[in-house]
Amino acid sequence: MYTIGQVAEMFQLPISTLRYYDKEGLLPGIERKSGRRLFSDVEIEALHVIECLKASGLEIREIRQFMKWCIEGAETYGKRKELFEARKKAVEEEMTRLQKTLDLIRFKCWYYEQAIKDGTEEKLQAMIPDKLPKELRELYDNGHQ
Amino acid sequence: MYTIGQVAEMFQLPISTLRYYDKEGLLPGIERKSGRRLFSDVEIEALHVIECLKASGLEIREIRQFMKWCIEGAETYGKRKELFEARKKAVEEEMTRLQKTLDLIRFKCWYYEQAIKDGTEEKLQAMIPDKLPKELRELYDNGHQ
DNA sequence: TCTTGACCTAAAGTCAAGTTTAGGTTTTAT
DNA sequence: ATAAAACCTAAACTTGACTTTAGGTCAAGA
Questions:
Q1: Which residues of chain A make contact with B77, given a CB cutoff of 8 A?
Q2: Which DSSP helix (H) or strand (E) runs through A116?
Q3: pLDDT tens sequence across A18-61
Q4: Are the beta carbons of B85 and A120 separated by less than 8 Å?
Q5: CB contacts, 8 Å: A120 with chain B
């Protein structure tokens, strides 16, 4: 059993955030001793799942719904599985989007490196097709028609 | 030259968002004709960069700073390059985090699939070490000590 | 025992990123 | 020429996820 302060340290979260999660129903059934929260392994696991679902882009209100399903037992296995399947899809899409973002960023890094060498963007603009490394070429052709 | 409505269609963004970006200084020097915004190739390119920087996690206020640097010319090439280098690092870190998130999500998908087959979580908890596919094994050992 | 640090609640405040509203002007199609 | 469609501004409103504040309770060490 851990105090709120210990858990805050463990997860590198402010205490106020843990209280907020509890108030929002993300830690249903957390034990108390003379008013103070007692975090057990169940709550530690719940917090790992909360961090996972948050990172996947889920909102607090939807995480609360998931926690409710957990309490309802076996009849909600299907809903819970579907939720994770949907999160899987969302995260995979986000990673694809980030990969495209990264491609453009890499181009911009190259671009400014050249501009610094050349001392100006003016000359560079015309010379891009010649100078651009092969691995950035397709990106440039797509991204700038 | 495009009208705000055409650009909204092009980027699948609400018109109000484009006006907001302009008001926040993300489209400096945009032309006007009798009060109406005229988006040229410069603004279209700016919007691509805005979407990229937003996707990388940059805030509006920092994008505005970048746009100011663009106007200042050659003396800010270094700053602009450093900004993109920093964004590259941030996006790479975010992708690493999302990969970990995805690993846990995949475990949960497997877990609920098993629970549905078995009809209960109870039995499953004890059987995890035996049933868990090899590729999810390390995750389980790390994630649950 | 006493006091200091850790905990509690309810309610108000903050912040970013838009969105909506209200009231007005301009362009375009009939 | 006129009416609908598209545009404009300023200012207020919204939303989500916290954080801060104010005022109090509890417990463990000196």
A1: 112, 115-116, 121
A2: helix A77-118
A3: 999 999 999 999 999 999 999 999 999 999 999 999 999 999 99
A4: no
A5: 74
B14 Cβ contacts chain C strand, under 7 Å: yes
Angle at CA of residue B8, ends B4 and B12, nearest 5° = 175
Computed over its alpha carbons, how large is the radius of gyration of chain A?
24
Contact of B57 with A96, CB cutoff 8 Å: no
Mean pLDDT rounded to a whole number for chain B? 91
Supply A131's token pair.
């100078």
Residue B89 predicted with pLDDT over 60:
yes
| Averaged pLDDT, A74-95 | 98
What chain B residue is nearest to A85 in terms of C-alpha separation? B109
User: Using H for helix, E for strand and C for coil, what is the string for B53-87?
Assistant: HHHCCCCHHHHHHHHHHHHHCHHHHHHHHHHHHHH
Angle between helices B15-23 and B4-11 (to 10 degrees): 110
What is the CA angle B80-B85-B89, rounded to 5? 145
pTM of the model: 0.91
Q: What is the rounded CA–CA span in Å between residue A46 and residue B113?
A: 19
A65-76 mean pLDDT: 96
C-alpha distance from A25 to closest chain B C-alpha (Å): 21
B94 vs A52, A87, A98: nearest CB: A98
What mean pLDDT do residues A82-87 have? 98
